[in-house]
User: What shape does this take?
Amino acid sequence: MADRKASIERNTKETQIKVELDLDGTGASEIETGIGFFDHMLTHLAKHGLLDLQVRCKGDLEVDAHHTVEDVGIAIGKAIARAVGDKAGLVRYGSSIVPMDDALVMTALDISGRGSLAYGVSVAKEMVGSFDSELAPEFFKSVCVNAGINAHIRQFDGSNAHHVIEAAFKSFARALREAVSIDPRIQGVPSTKGTL
Assistant: This one.
């Protein structure tokens, strides 16, 4: 099997980002975005997705965290799209339900080539540390659109914002881990269309 790795650089007037990704990693990560809680969530994405992930971002945090979070999502999404390659043998679908204390969140996703996000998660607390909780769906949307992933993230329970958002990242990671797996029984691309 060919290496399923990708390196993406994204430089704008708002952010300078470098992402390195290995889909067949061990969960190792080196994350520096300047936003502590976001770094913590990206570390969970790597650990529970068994992705080796390096993210370096210098963003205009003096404005706010929006550009950093959105653009990191774009870069990670592009890295996933590049790393899956021609998608031959790909399992394609993944799902996971993750409990985190009071929180319970499910992610179901399809690496379909048609990027979209349905986000049914609600938290009452506006900020978690220096992270604006409304940026969580912005991150997932950026990843999905740029990776060609159709994802549904649903909250079944939970009121603690930290727990709910963390459960969302962990469930997304575990669903992605399943979907990017290779099944040797799958011949070619897993679609009756012959393409994804």
